[in-house]
Automatic annotation (TrEMBL):
It holds the Pfam family Hydrolase_4. InterPro entries: AB_hydrolase_fold, Hydrolase_4. Residues 71-178 form the Serine aminopeptidase S33 domain. Residues 277-293 have a biased composition (Basic and acidic residues). The lineage of its organism: Eukaryota, Viridiplantae, Streptophyta, Embryophyta, Tracheophyta. Residues 276-332 are annotated as: Disordered. PANTHER family: ALPHA/BETA HYDROLASE DOMAIN-CONTAINING PROTEIN, ALPHA_BETA-HYDROLASES SUPERFAMILY PROTEIN. This is Serine aminopeptidase S33 domain-containing protein. It comes from Brassica oleracea var. oleracea. Gene3D superfamilies: alpha/beta hydrolase. It comes from the Eukaryota.
Length: 364
């Protein structure tokens, strides 16, 4: 049961579009890479940078950085399933324009023109590589980064957010508690489960916005609500009445709520955080904050402001963190070796299918 269920969860999570919606071409005169998608005509070349980044697991992923001239913050966007950055470009473009943010989108290993095969552990290495590129190439500091995870993307976004104490904010769009919990109502986590978001949300210190549709038939809204309840720093959630799993960007409330959130985040003073040592990354649980120094709620029914006060020294390492919040690669790979009659169920349930993504992009 365990190995079959884990295989089912893995197959549920990853449906790379085939063929990819774009190719990467290099301008012979400038040496600059571009994505050959028709929709790219909507932005000038100087506003978009296409990059290839090596991950610590040896894959080369493709990223797209959209620069906004007046941006103060940068969104690192982890997209949903059955799509790639070519299909997502219109949404990326609209978010960058309307929210006045820089935006970095990337394809997971095995998606788009990124090399390798997708897996839970690969997505963690992928987002880490994109994050490192922002810091090293653009000089973007953690306190200027907002992680945005849609559906499957909530997994790598929460994994990284749980290890970045200076992160500015986190947006969870149609998120799930864990891969197994999408299919079964289980009270406890099992070693063969993937993307254990329910455990990692409790390690996130920054403000969290959750967006979910009330009619989501793929990931029930109860997942989003529980993750919001478990957040330390809650921002007023957006429960979109009638929203399904892949059409939330089409609702008129979507962009105004995000603008309000970004505006609130921009007004917050750059927080001073507690001392963070390398050894902290190897503890199962993070040290609880002193209640007298903890932040008030932002944008919720409790308050509209957040002022964080912590010690002002920081040392961060985003290397491997052991403990229950991460599956071991060996155990995860062993769990994939068998697959039984539950396979048909896998193919009938997807975390954002191809058709709904294409419709959302076409209507954007």
């Amino acid at each position: 049961m365990g190995t079959a269920t884990s295989t089912m969860a893995a197959k549920l999570a990853f449906f790379p579009p085939n063929p990819p919606s774009y190719t990467v071409v290099t301008d012979e005169s400038t040496g600059k890479m571009r994505i050959s998608a028709e929709m790219m005509r909507h932005r000038r070349d100087e506003e978009i940078e296409v990059v290839k980044i090596m991950t610590r697991r040896g894959n080369e992923i493709v990223g797209m950085y959209i620069k906004h001239p007046t941006a103060k913050l940068t969104v690192l966007y982890s997209h949903g399933n059955a799509t790639d950055i070519g299909q997502m470009f219109i949404i990326y473009n609209e978010l960058s324009h309307h929210l006045n943010v820089n935006l970095m989108g990337y394809d997971y290993s095995g998606y788009g023109r990124s090399s390798g095969k997708p897996s839970e552990q690969e997505t963690y290495a992928d987002i880490e590589a994109a994050y490192n590129w922002l810091r090293e190439t653009c000089g973007t500091k953690d306190e200027r980064i907002i992680l945005y995870g849609q559906s499957v993307g909530s997994g790598p976004s929460l994994e990284l957010a749980s290890r970045l104490p200076r992160l500015r904010a986190l947006v969870l769009h149609s998120p799930f508690l864990s891969g197994l919990r999408v299919m079964y109502h289980v009270k406890h986590s099992f070693w063969f489960d993937i993307f254990k978001n329910i455990e990692k949300i409790q390690l996130v210190d920054c403000p969290v916005l959750v967006i979910h549709g009330t009619d989501d038939k793929v990931v029930d809204i109860s997942h989003g609500k529980q993750l919001w309840e478990l957040s330390k720093e809650k921002y007023e959630p957006l429960w979109l009445k009638g929203g399904s799993h892949c059409n939330l960007e089409m609702f008129p409330e979507y962009l105004p709520h995000l603008r309000k959130f970004i505006g609130a985040i921009e007004k917050l003073p750059v927080p001073q955080f507690r001392r963070h040592s390398v050894s902290d990354d190897h503890k199962k649980d993070k040290q609880q904050l002193d209640p007298k120094k903890s932040s008030s709620w932002i944008g919720s029914r409790h308050s509209t402001e957040c002022v964080t006060s912590r010690d002002n020294s920081r040392k961060m390492n985003i290397g491997h963190r052991s403990g229950k919040a991460r599956n071991s690669t060996d155990s995860f790979d062993r769990a994939r070796n068998s697959f039984d009659r539950l396979g048909e169920m896998v193919r009938s349930v997807r975390l954002c299918n191809v058709d709904c993504v294409k419709n959302a992009v076409a209507e954007a």
